[in-house]
């Protein structure tokens, strides 16, 4: 029968051929991405003496999940600060088998564990944009926003020029009284509870410090709009839980965008945070435009003032969405990390009464019984040392990640583009080669000559990162923590309650898994 009797055959053959070509191209790309490139990368690193667990085409992450599950029920003695076997058992196993610098895998992505301080210095000191922040994904962006933490290149420089003036030390010192006032409210409640219970009461301080630091950031960042700021705190706390649940669950392609119950809730919370922050910002802009006395002296006002000033023209001006993202960043970072710093400092002081006594004596000597000021807080040298040692042993972030934006050489190691560079902060903070034989012990005196001389490497403390991308809010966090500790030490002796279970856990930030109950003993006025 002639082909003309079946006209579709003439069309179908080219279409089928085109579809076959597309399928072949897709299969080839998948083969390269999932098989050829990973094995080629593994061989390239092996030739340089860098090895690790083998790449697996299927089920590559199961080993990590099994190790984490196996240690999730472990607890530590209170005298031990080595939570690595519990929180990072996979990194501990790999570095023991393959060395401080080893190759691991996140799906098809090569991940280089960077346990060398020299390599870390090279990565964090880079100003060329070669080592970039990885894409955090929508769950983390909903929580933190695309602020200073995640921007890169010219965007990061532009953001920093606008945000930096708000965190200048002279500005922060004016906020010390606000920090102390917020802490005094919480401590006043503790005093009432202790007085009603014959001078002694047990308090779960972790949650209370979360509320305290949220109150501080709401007042210092948003001033008279602090009530709306507390709404942002509540929404962000739920977003943090959703983000942790998302990363802990099994995912599938497109799971970030599927209309699941958790995603729908995340989108509603994200809109609420954005609308609340935009409302506060527009109120400030309207007040400034109407001659209402400027933008305000809080962090938001200082940032809006710097943004309006412009700097070097349009390049220094951020959009309203960018301002919102920076608000999300410093609100979450400003309360979450500081609350955990205070919590772990209370744990360490509660298990080291000699250091608690020394700090109390220092506080009474430098601050007396009067108002807490920024100048007085700057004189608390021992307190500063204890906080640095707390950050070393129990820093909020256990792991930093950077992505190689191009093929490069890192301290003699050739690293291909797209490799994720994983910096195991918690493990580096226990590295005896850098910190000495007592690296696993609580010894604040290692910081007596300052952070730069506390270890064999000047950039050894990585709690606030290091280099040009170090945390812009570190002075804010330290001042807030010192103000709260000073007030607590003046009014209470304390110890860790008998029921406390020492089980640090990584819920995006390092926290006591079961909270931290503290026995507070009211001191005589």
TrEMBL record:
It is found in: Membrane. Keywords: Heme, Iron, Membrane, Metal-binding, Monooxygenase, Oxidoreductase, Transmembrane, Transmembrane helix. This is Cytochrome P450. Its cofactor is heme. Belongs to the cytochrome P450 family. The keyword Transmembrane helix applies. GO terms for biological process: lipid metabolic process. It holds the Pfam family p450. GO terms for molecular function: metal ion binding; monooxygenase activity. InterPro entries: Cyt_P450, Cyt_P450_E_grp-I, Cyt_P450_sf, Cytochrome_P450_Monooxygen. Transmembrane segments: none annotated. Heme binds at residue 471. One of its GO terms (cellular component) is membrane. It comes from the Eukaryota.
